[in-house]
């Protein structure tokens, strides 16, 4: 009897050791692979920043459009590669936004400079100044990153450790983290000079008397139900627009509404519940949505888009004045198609953009604008519209909806100078690849 | 040709409901509309039960040819004319558009796969949260896609290392429920309960000092949302 036990134990021990060793090896392989991915992203990043610095440097010495345009396009490409690498590093818990924004800014600048018409002058004085500054900045980032890289290589630092440290806030070798913080502060130092689209007047059209919490609750009660079920919370200090949020939560339903403290305007509304079989068509839902908006005193709005998602209809309304559609002043309404209840409203874009400042009369006429449209597009519908251009400014446009083959396009031609502001390919129906849900 | 057709074919049984059909609609009525328009040669696309641009132009062409008001809306008059000139065999299109009223149409610019991926992230991150808390997480993903400081794609944002705990611990691969999907669609349609936040954290478990230093906008459920 006894003599059996020992061989069995030995076999068992061997088997377990073998299994354990294999587990360990597999885990090591996975860890090494993950680490290698980080390493590649990091070393690639330093390389691209090097390259960027060099490319900007040579761009400064170029004087002809023939060489400058491709160079700027190249810079744009390199920034996008560098950004892709940043996105693969575990830096989310580290302040590294400024550097990412810096990369974005260079890309943006290079792109705009590359595509603009440089017939007269390759780069304006201002652009050269900007480029010089970007050159200096990229050089500092480059130097800092190279230093970190040097330490990483010499001391065999692992990004996996950095990741762990960041996640747990545990002290350890901080070389990498500190290095990136230095890079970040380098960029931060230039912050003022970078053109920031910091719109302090973003909500300047939202006006009126301050409302109390009680008043917010009253406003909410009309759409959300009994006041005693509602709770009101206030937005926190950091919010750009201060709001009261009125909400209710029950077992099988819930909802909330954002009301601006200034003026008590409804900005957002959302309710959720089980929705029964549709009794209303999308069209009838749209009539309901229009009635709700009238009730809420949104005058002169028109439906520009309707879509059905399962048992709800979602409608996009825009402000309309003198036959011009203001796509900038948009409101969306969601209606349950079982009983027509309003389940959602978002009027933030409308509240942000809706001012009394009218647009100037178009400088070119419809026919002229039409001639600017690609000849292969068969124009089927026309409107006047106001949209935001790339700089975020409101521009008056002729809007043409047309077809090329079986694809539908929406084309905006600037009514002032005939420029093609925007060409949108209208969505075709989404193919379903699975039968899930 | 239409005269011939209408003379030859006896009117088939109509399945049209009494409702006006318009662009953006989905379901049985749209399937019948598309099938009938296709039968008479006005519509060349797929009979999928989703009233998109192709169907819209087909309806307008039909209205124009038959001397009706060209508005792209399918009312009783249009239905009656359509029934007179075309036939419809419901059996042929039985399994189109994923059973009546449940066809997938997706918000402009996003595919069903994008929605699936986001629903996974939302479910993994916020399945215990109130509905608006789930929409809020989807909004943060979209706000990051728009932000210069983050990757430019939904997948880039979701899989950024350490960006979302559900990605780090694998909970993102749980099967999301219908509610998470609805939350994603609401966010894609423009609802943003967060006030344009690009970060959020759970104040009970957040260990990073830096995250506490961000300007806070508001709290929804367990999460604090910030810029």
From TrEMBL, chain A:
InterPro entries: YpeB_N, YpeB_PepSY1-2. It holds the Pfam family YPEB_PepSY1-2. Residues 26-161 form the Sporulation protein YpeB N-terminal domain. One of its GO terms (biological process) is spore germination. Residues 178-356 form the Sporulation protein YpeB PepSY1 and PepSY2 domain. This is Spore germination protein. It comes from Salimicrobium halophilum.
TrEMBL record, chain B:
Pfam families: Hydrolase_2 (PF07486), PG_binding_1 (PF01471). InterPro entries: Cell_wall_hydrolase_SleB (IPR011105), Peptidoglycan-bd-like (IPR002477), PGBD-like_sf (IPR036365), PGBDSf (IPR036366), SleB_dom1 (IPR042047), Spore_cortex_SleB (IPR014224). The keyword Metal-binding does not apply. The keyword Signal applies. One of its GO terms (molecular function) is hydrolase activity. One of its GO terms (biological process) is spore germination. Keywords: Cell wall biogenesis/degradation, Germination, Hydrolase, Signal, Sporulation. Residues 27-82 form the Peptidoglycan binding-like domain. Residues 128-226 form the Cell wall hydrolase SleB domain. Transmembrane segments: none annotated. Belongs to the SleB family. This is Spore cortex-lytic enzyme. It comes from Salimicrobium halophilum.
